[in-house]
């Protein structure tokens, strides 16, 4: 219950997000386009696993899904410092950098999602970028704890593989950290191509940050149905999603949603116009059959994973209803 309480009360705030209309057309992804994301979905899920199991490739279904993977380095404690890993995938011809997200079994990482404000980027990790570019201070703090280690490991992986492509992946908070890496790393690795694939990506920075990402980062961020994490922190607090949204529909089809915070009801900002209309149980997936979270790191049955997830999310649902009722008692206008 502590997980649910921390998550909801640290992130909800006022509930209605301001959106900017877009006239661009929304298109469906083909089956082959969807399946192309699957190896990276497993790589994002792998980031929840203990570093030792990633290094020896004993992390269960996620490691089994990418048998060509060659680990280079891994670290973090899963609490104060998120798990991370770097490796090589010869079949995909890319270096992989993975960041752990907000695992329900860990409380401390969720605290990085609350008590936040926008701040300028660190000049050491983001040299030469305009001071108008601002990001979530807690995301930036967490990123700074491992940025140099991950950069060093990425250099080693590039040298060993002779590849010129780095793919950064993560889910939830991990997606935010991957996005920050995708802005920082190119400053130190000229001539290398980067692409970022995030799952359940929260809003990371302000409009200037989103504009920079749109112009300089090859980003796809995949949102699952009514997951409300991609629409927080709120736009009223100055946060904006970058382009690149792929939104999974209730029928499990995937749509490409162009623009920043596309308000179409088939996209996250339109589908989840308030936190109360969202569903936290959609946050961990499935993403084309891939579930995020620490439970997937073990060789357990799908039934066991589903049962555990259902128990967690049912508890969250009750807490959310109580939180909403409490908020209405104190400020009945805040959800209007």
Outline the structure in words.
- It catalyses: a monoacylglycerol + H2O = glycerol + a fatty acid + H(+); a diacylglycerol + H2O = a monoacylglycerol + a fatty acid + H(+).
- Keywords: Disulfide bond, Signal.
- InterPro entries: AB_hydrolase_fold, Fungal_lipase-type, Sec_MonoDiacylglyc_Lipase.
- This is Fungal lipase-type domain-containing protein.
- By secondary structure, the chain is α/β, with parallel strands linked by helices.
- The chain has a single domain, classed as Rossmann fold (3-Layer(aba) Sandwich), CATH 3.40.50.1820.
- 35% of the residues lie in helices and 16% in strands.
- The protein contains eleven helices and eleven strands.
- The strands form two sheets. Strands 1-11-10-9-8-7-4-3-2 form a nine-stranded mixed sheet, sandwiched between helices. It has a two-stranded antiparallel sheet with strand order 5-6.
- The longest helix has 29 residues.
- The chain starts with a helix and ends in a 6-residue tail after the last helix.
- The N terminus and C terminus are likely disordered.
Rg estimate, integer Å: 19 Å
What average pLDDT do the residues reach?
Answer: 83
| Uncertain parts | 1-23, 104-112, 300-336
CATH class: Alpha Beta
Q: What portion of the residues fall into strands of 2 or more residues?
A: 15-25%
Query: Which series of helices and strands comes N to C?
Result: HEHHHHEEEHEEHEHEHEEEHH
Total number of domains: 1
Helical content, roughly? 25-40%
- By CATH, the architecture is named 3-Layer(aba) Sandwich
Q: What is the distance, rounded to the nearest whole angstrom, between the alpha carbons of the first and last residues?
A: 28 Å
CATH fold category name: Rossmann fold
Number of E-type strands: 11
The total count of helices amounts to: 11
Q: Helix/strand-derived class?
A: alpha/beta
Outline type: globular
Characterize the largest beta sheet: strand count, sense, and whether it forms a barrel: 9 strands, mixed
Provide the spatial order of strands within the biggest beta sheet. Answer: 1-11-10-9-8-7-4-3-2
- Find the CATH superfamily: Alpha/Beta hydrolase fold, catalytic domain
Keywords: Disulfide bond, Signal
Protein name: Fungal lipase-type domain-containing protein
Domain Fungal lipase-type: 98-235
Signal peptide: 1-17
């Amino acid at each position: 219950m502590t997980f649910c309480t921390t998550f909801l009360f640290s992130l909800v705030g006022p509930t209605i997000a301001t959106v900017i209309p877009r006239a661009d057309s929304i298109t469906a992804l083909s089956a082959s386009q969807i399946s192309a994301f699957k190896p990276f979905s497993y790589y994002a899920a792998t980031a929840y696993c203990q570093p030792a199991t990633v290094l020896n490739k004993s992390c269960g279904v996620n490691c089994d899904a990418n048998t060509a993977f060659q680990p280079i380095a891994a670290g973090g404690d899963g609490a104060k410092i998120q798990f991370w890993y770097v490796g090589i995938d010869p079949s995909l011809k890319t270096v992989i950098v993975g960041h752990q997200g907000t695992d329900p079994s860990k409380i401390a990482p969720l605290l990085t999602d609350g008590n936040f404000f926008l701040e300028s980027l660190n000049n050491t990790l983001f040299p030469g970028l305009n001071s108008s570019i601002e990001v979530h201070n807690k995301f930036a703090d967490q990123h700074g704890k491992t940025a140099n280690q991950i950069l060093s490991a990425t250099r080693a992986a590039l040298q060993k593989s002779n590849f010129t492509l780095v793919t950064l992946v993560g889910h939830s908070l991990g997606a935010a950290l991957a996005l920050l890496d995708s802005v920082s790393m190119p400053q130190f690795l000229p001539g290398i191509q980067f692409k970022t694939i995030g799952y359940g990506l929260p809003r990371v920075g302000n409009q200037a940050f989103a504009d920079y990402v749109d112009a300089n980062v090859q980003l796809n961020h995949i949102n699952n149905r009514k997951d409300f994490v991609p629409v927080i922190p709120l736009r009223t607090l100055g946060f904006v999603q970058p382009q690149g949204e792929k939104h999974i529909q209730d029928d499990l089809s995937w749509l490409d949603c162009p623009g920043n915070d596309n308000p179409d009801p088939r996209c996250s900002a339109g589908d989840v116009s308030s936190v109360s209309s969202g569903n936290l149980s959609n946050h961990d997936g499935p993403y084309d059959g891939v579930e995020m979270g620490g439970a997937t790191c073990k060789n357990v049955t799908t039934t066991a994973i589903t049962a555990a997830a259902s128990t967690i999310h049912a508890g969250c649902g009750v807490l959310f209803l109580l939180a909403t009722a409490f908020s209405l008692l104190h400020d009945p206008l805040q959800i209007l």
